[in-house]
């Protein structure tokens, strides 16, 4: 790969993109970082306005063997958007149109740079929404959400990005425009390139436009908060909740350490306990009380300490405060945070949390676990002071142990953040050599010169 | 590709498989047909008992350049299981184990040859089910369901095969065992080979084992039957149904011709009408009445002729009789049937049905449309007498026009049957040359010698 841009490429790009071609130092630095706090210097930044420009950029970069790193809003926590091999950062910030919003057919066609929240607003005017609700929804783009298969708390009922995309228009690493999938919710026509590209983090093709499945908004919601004596009894309640026919619209977990932090640092009005579950149901006014009763019933069992319900929006806010106060509390006690998103089968949540507690003791660092219990998708946060070299080293040493623990419980490395550079070397622990070879063969098939986001996802 | 089996291969297979290696004429003929009424002679039939044998077969066939056609129960209606290039038919009929059924974690790991209905029975003992319910469920295999992305009526609420698989073990055309996906309902770890293999009809890899997502059974269901003055008003009701937050568990459509056939030939107690909708909701006793009311409300609108509800199982059976009487009625009036499964956006259902009526008039054949309206997935049946050469020719001439009509309405060729040989030449109308080239590149990546189910899915 060329480490500096050839002059003919620079000239061609400047002519093609006009003020959408940035090669000044400030831009190169600005677009060289993401939310992982990683950094590398891009050679230049391209801001295309349409698919023809995207295709022209890819074709030119292929000709000159220059890397292209696709970028949404740079909210990746895995370094997926960092241009480690230089080349061009291609930001979709000028491609933000809602091309079509077909309410009767419940789909939207949008450009990759559209912000998630802006889609939700437009869909909401028709009583519809797009399921993925990552914490970054106010700033992250649809293209970025798709690239890393973003989820969020309501995925437990409505699914992740991959579950809510019908079709894609993309430019492959060979510079071809492909249109895969359909406008419809059933499709058995040919190879499913759509779901393959979702979660591939810009390494196979650049997602330029997406057809998204929209769902009807449930107008009302109710919540409950349950405290348990230990994680085992909370996990058993999760299994009961997921085995009855009223699907929770959110099912969030906090471990003992998180509960304590929310109270002692965040100021939440909550008792000490071994584990907490927040459960939400949504629906219409006529059935909401019943749904709340159904999930309350499922929550009851051995080890339940307390159960509070919030049948309406006002009481809901109060109940969710402890969960919301957690993130600021985490920031208060530590400047440094490794925020993982491992997944295990629900029945293995107790073993995961016990293992995390053991790692916290062994490495003498606060390590907390919370998140999307219905999917077994827990955010394990390793907290440390980045100015303290010893703490930093211990945090970094704890991370491979967390992944080994997760895999030993038949879990997987990432539920909604993706792999990026942060986890790529652990891919060899998660998959067999033959499986990785198949992934590499697919990479080779769609990006024969390896110009798309090199050094990401697949291990060296 | 070798058109006859080399002697060393035959010897190796006989030693490997013992009585699981069939090369007599009866077996070769029996395994050379499927439910598409197509036929070709296999060179031999392999009945492996485990993944090691599957891998050994693939490796040997690759070495000798011999085709392998994977087979479940042969219920394909597209000729996907026909060994047109000879070679080995690999039937999974001896691999029918339920390897694991984890009720608390709501997944099952099963071998590819397990019959759909047997999985449902085993899962049902835990109050769980696997969503896909193709009409062939009593005989078709999980591997076959996955290979063609089978759906069925309840896909409107619960999704198709692709939506309900978590992971796969498969043998690629290069003879490697790959294990992709996970045990969990969220997964952002590497390339999504799982969903790529689903619907690839045995052309990329042989699915040997699958991890399936199980869902909690809703214990009760209620139905309604609505007659409409025309298809337009029925389609508007479908759009209203899909835009409100109580998802129908089934949402079936019959056109005017189907209603007439069900009454006049099938003996159903049903009035003449322009269109019929059958709507089912499921849930628990406490909310079912409300759900039925919610969908009844959504059904009401311009053009509604009558609305009958069935709040319990006994009345349900009576109401669904007209739908059940349709298939025997179709068989009664015509021995020959081209049964397609095109999909269009819901708003285009009226245009599709109008176009089908025009084709029926133009080609002077009964052509009827019914099926899964909530997904826009209609079974268009072209009826003819196969002993009448002129009728047969007209039926075959009508088919490309149906696909052209579907694509002109921004629909797709198949919702749940797949492509096989029946629709492969129409793939070039459905996808751009560049998109097909990407599919071919992926085929080349996973099956470099083209030994897996050659001549299927992708056009020549």
From TrEMBL, chains A, B:
Any Pfam family: FAD-oxidase_C
Keywords (A to Z) from UniProt: FAD, Flavoprotein, Methyltransferase, Oxidoreductase, Transferase
GO biological process, one term: methylation
Cofactor(s) named in the record: FAD
Gene3D superfamilies, A to Z: 3.30.465.10, 3.30.70.2740, Vanillyl-alcohol Oxidase, Chain A, domain 4
Molecular-function annotations in GO: FAD binding; methyltransferase activity; oxidoreductase activity
Domain (FAD-binding PCMH-type) ranges: 38-217
PROSITE patterns recorded: FAD_PCMH
Protein's UniProt keywords contain Mitochondrion: no
Similarity comment: Belongs to the FAD-binding oxidoreductase/transferase type 4 family.
Protein name: Dimethylmenaquinone methyltransferase
Organism field: Pseudoxanthomonas dokdonensis
């Amino acid at each position: 790969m060329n480490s500096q841009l050839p002059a003919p490429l620079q000239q061609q790009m400047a002519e093609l993109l006009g003020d959408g071609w940035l090669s000044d130092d400030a831009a190169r630095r600005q677009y060289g970082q993401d939310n992982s706090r990683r950094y590398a210097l891009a050679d230049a930044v391209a801001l295309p306005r349409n698919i023809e420009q995207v295709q022209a950029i890819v074709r030119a970069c292929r000709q000159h063997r220059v890397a292209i790193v696709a970028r949404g809003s740079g909210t990746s926590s895995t370094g997926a958007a960092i241009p480690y091999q230089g080349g061009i950062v291609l930001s979709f910030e000028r491609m933000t149109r809602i091309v079509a919003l077909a309410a009767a057919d419940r789909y939207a066609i949008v450009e990759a740079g559209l912000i998630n929240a802006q889609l939700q607003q437009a869909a909401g005017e028709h009583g519809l929404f797009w399921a993925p609700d990552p914490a970054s929804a106010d700033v992250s783009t649809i293209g970025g959400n798709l690239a890393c298969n973003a989820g969020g708390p309501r995925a437990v009922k409505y699914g992740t990005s991959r579950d809510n995309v019908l079709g894609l228009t993309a430019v492959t690493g060979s510079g071809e425009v492909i249109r895969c999938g359909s406008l419809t919710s059933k499709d058995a026509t040919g190879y499913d390139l759509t779901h393959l590209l979702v979660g591939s983090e810009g390494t196979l093709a650049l997602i330029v436009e997406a057809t998204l499945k929209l769902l009807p908004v449930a107008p009302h919601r109710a919540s409950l908060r349950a405290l348990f004596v230990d994680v085992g009894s909370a996990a058993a309640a999760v299994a009961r909740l997921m085995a009855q026919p009223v699907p929770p619209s959110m099912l969030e977990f906090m471990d003992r350490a998180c509960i304590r932090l929310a109270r002692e640092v965040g100021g939440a009005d909550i008792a000490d306990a071994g584990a907490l579950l927040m459960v939400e149901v949504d629906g219409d006014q006529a059935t909401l009380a019943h749904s709340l009763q159904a999930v309350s019933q499922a929550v009851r069992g051995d080890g339940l300490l307390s159960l509070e319900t919030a049948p309406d929006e006002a009481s809901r806010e109060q109940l969710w405060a402890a969960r919301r106060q957690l993130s600021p509390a985490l920031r208060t006690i530590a400047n440094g945070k490794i925020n993982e998103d491992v997944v295990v089968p629900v029945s293995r949540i107790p073993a995961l949390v016990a293992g995390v507690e053991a790692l916290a003791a062994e490495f003498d660092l606060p390590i907390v676990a919370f998140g999307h219990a219905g999917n077994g998708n827990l955010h394990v946060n390793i907290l440390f002071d980045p100015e303290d070299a010893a703490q930093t080293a211990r945090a970094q040493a704890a991370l491979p142990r967390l992944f080994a623990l997760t895999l030993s419980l038949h879990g997987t490395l990432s539920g909604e953040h993706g792999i990026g550079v942060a986890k790529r070397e652990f891919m060899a622990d998660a998959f067999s050599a033959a499986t990785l070879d198949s992934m590499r063969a697919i990479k080779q098939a769609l990006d024969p010169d390896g110009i798309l986001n090199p050094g990401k996802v697949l291990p060296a």
